[in-house]
Amino acid sequence: MRTINCDVVVVGAGPAGSMTAKWAALGGADVVMIEKRPEIGSPIRCGEGISRSWLDRVGVKVDPKWVARTVKGAKIVSPSGKHMVMLDESKAGNEVGFVVDRVFFDKALARDAAEAGAKIMLKTAATSLIYEDGKIAGVRAVSHGEPVEIRANCVVGADGFESQVGRWAGIDTSLKATDIITCYQYRLTNIDYDPDFTEFLLGSVAPGGYAWIFPKDDNTANIGLGVLLTKIKKPGEVKECLDRWIARDPRLKNGQPLEAVSGAVSVCAPLDSVAIDNLLLVGDAARMINPITGGGIANSCYAGMFAGKVLAKAVKANDYSMKVLQEYEDDWRAKMENGLWRDWMAKEKLITLSDDTLEMLVEAVSKVELEKINVHTLLAAVKQTYPELVKEFEDLI
Fold it and tell me: Cα(276)–Cα(288) distance, rounded to whole angstroms?
C-alpha cells in the first residue's frame, strides 16, 4: 500500500478545509488536503450568499471571477407578503453582500492553500482513521481506486454535514430531527424580480425553515427553501413545497430551471467538543452552522484560520495534544459560540410560531429603525409594538 507522510492531513476541500490547509501551510506545516470528489466546489449545495465584511479578516481577497452578483441588502418578508423588513448589507449578517459562484470561490480558496504549500489530492476518499500505539496517526483512503495510507500527526475533519471523521474519532456530532433542515433549490432563469436584494420568506411556505431568493443576474437567481425534518411527512415533500411557491408567485412562475440541488443543513447548538488529541473538526463537520439562517461559509473560514494557525504552532512544538489544540477550541468559541447558542435558542422557539404570529413579528420590526441586527435587537423591537409576543423570548433579550 502506498504511504504518504505529512504533518497534517485535511479531509475535505471546502472552505473550512482549504482555509485550515492554507493557514497551517503558511505557518510551516507540511499539509495534505484530500477531496473525495473529482472537482472542488462542485456540485453546489448552497444558496451562495456571503457578506464581504469578514473576508479581509480571514485573508481572502475578493476576486471578480467568483462574485456573481453584488447586492444592496436583504428583505425579510412576512408569510402573507404584506410586511417586509429591509436591511442594508451592513446590517444583514454574514450571508448578504455578495452572491458568489461557489465553484470558483471554493477553487480560489483551494488555490490559496496550494500557493501556501499545501498538497491537494482529488478523488481521494478517507475510509478510516489510522491508530498507532493508541494515538491517531493519519487516515486510510482510496485514491483513484487505489488504497493509500496518509500518515499524519494531526487529522482535520472538514468533511461537511455528513462528516465521518468525527464519528470515527468518537466525537458526538449526532443530530436530533429538530436540528436538521432539508433543502431543495433551483437555479431559476426567466424570472422578474428585484436582483439588488436577497429575500427571505417566512412561514408555512417552508415549515420550520424559510424560502429564499439569492440573485445571480438580472433574471436568474437561486430559488430554494428549507423544511425542518420533523415537518416532513413524505419523500419529495420539500421539492413540492418549492414548486408550489414558485407556481403561485407571479415573479417566479414563468421561470425555467438551469440546475436543481438538494441537501441537508445542521441547525443545532454548538458541540461540547470539536477536538481531541491529534484530531480536530472544522466548519460544517463541527456543526458551526448558524441555526437561524443555515449559513456557514463565514464560520467555516474563521474556524479554518483559527485551526490552521494553531496547527502551525503544534508543528513547531511537535505537540499535537489537547495541551496545544485547546487554543483552537478557545479561539472559535470566543468568536462564535455565544451567537450560535443564542440563535439556536431563538430557532427552537421560532419553529413553534404560527403564520399569524410571524406576520406580527415582521410587521413590528418593519416599523423600527435598527442600527444593528441580531436576535436581541429584533426582539427588543418587537417588544415595543407587541410586548405580549416576546414574553416567552424574555431570556433572549
Answer: 17
Do β-strands 119-121 and 31-34 pair in parallel, antiparallel, or remain unpaired? parallel
For 138, list phi and psi in degrees, rounded to 5: 130, -160
> Who contacts 319 (Cβ-Cβ below 8 Å, separation ≥6)?
none
- What is the identity of the amino acid at 8? V
CA distance 180 to 146: 34
Residue 204: left (phi > 0), alpha (psi -120 to 50), or beta? alpha
Gap between the Cα atoms of 350 and 128, Å rounded: 39
Instruction: Give the Cα separation of 234 and 122 in Å (integer).
Output: 36
pLDDT for the residue numbered 1: 86
Q: How far is CA 254 from the centre of its chain?
A: 30
Nearest-angstrom CA–CA distance, 67 and 258: 19
Structural domains in the chain plus CATH codes: 2-46+103-175+271-337 (3.50.50.60), 70-100+177-266 (3.30.9.10), 348-396 (no CATH)
Cβ contact 268:287 at 8 Å = yes
pLDDT for position 221: 97
pTM (two decimals): 0.93
Residues of the chain with pLDDT under 50: none
pLDDT at res. 201: 96
Amino acid letter, 277: D
Count the neighbouring beta carbons within 10 Å of the beta carbon of residue 309.
18
Distance CA 264, CA 303 (A): 21
Backbone φ, ψ for residue 97 (5° rounding): 145, -65
Tell me the C-alpha distance between 249 and 80, whole Å.
12
Beta bridge partners of 215: 221
Which pairs with CB-CB distance under 8 Å and at least 24 residues apart come from 339-342? 339/290, 339/374, 340/269, 340/270, 340/288, 340/290, 340/291, 341/269, 341/270, 342/374, 342/375, 342/376, 342/396
